[in-house]
Each structure stands twice: as C-alpha cells, then as structure tokens.
Amino acid sequence: EQGTHYVDVTGEVPWVREMIAKYHDAARKKGVMVVHCAGQICTIDDLSLYLLAQKLGPLKQFREYFASSGDMTGGTYDTNIATFKDMTQDRLQVMRDPFSLGGKRRGGVRPED
C-alpha cells in the first residue's frame, strides 16, 4: 500500500502462492518488487546464473547438480508441522505443481531452449 519493496526468506510455497494471488496486481501497478524465498538454497543458483550470464552473455542452458546434508532447524520443523496441520487439497496441489509460483510455460520447446 505504501509502495515499499518487500523481501522475505520464507520457503512456504502455499503461503507464497496465496500472497501472489492477493498482492501481485497491486504491487505491479505501484512498481513494487516482492521477493520471496530470499536466502533459500536456490539463492546460490540464482546468483551464479546471473553472474555467468553477465560474464558470458545469454546462456542456452544451465544445468546444476547439488548435494546436501544436514538436518532441519527447529524453526523449519515447526513450519512443516504447521503447514501439514493446515493442509487442504488446494494447498497440496500447489505444493505438487512445479509451476505454481511462476505460471505455466506457453508450450513446447522455445528457440532459446
């Protein structure tokens, strides 16, 4: 409402989807940038890809292989418990859909692929 950019570290896909549905149009009209999932594991990928594209120019493809070890923090554990307590069929579908936050591709292989 105030035209302030917003950055959040959440990784809760159903909540992010709800925020997009609720605020996307208004944020776009005001020129507000909203960044969800900042600081998640994908941040390393995003920054690496951005820097590669700046150095090498447009890339046809980016493929990464990633391995991780470790355990959940208490906050992540609590979030997962709360997410499953509030689970509905609609929220489950959002979690299963790899395009739920960014929209569907228009179809087929594109020239840049």
TrEMBL record:
Q: Which organism is it from?
A: Spumella elongata
Q: Could you tell me the Gene Ontology terms of the biological process aspect for this record?
A: glycolipid biosynthetic process
Q: Name one GO cellular component term.
A: mitochondrion
Gene3D superfamilies reported for this sequence: NAD(P)-binding Rossmann-like Domain (3.40.50.720)
- Taxonomy-wise, where does this protein's organism fall, top ranks first? Eukaryota, Sar, Stramenopiles, Ochrophyta, Chrysophyceae
**Xref: InterPro entries:** Saccharopine_DH-like_oxidrdct
Protein name per UniProt: Uncharacterized protein
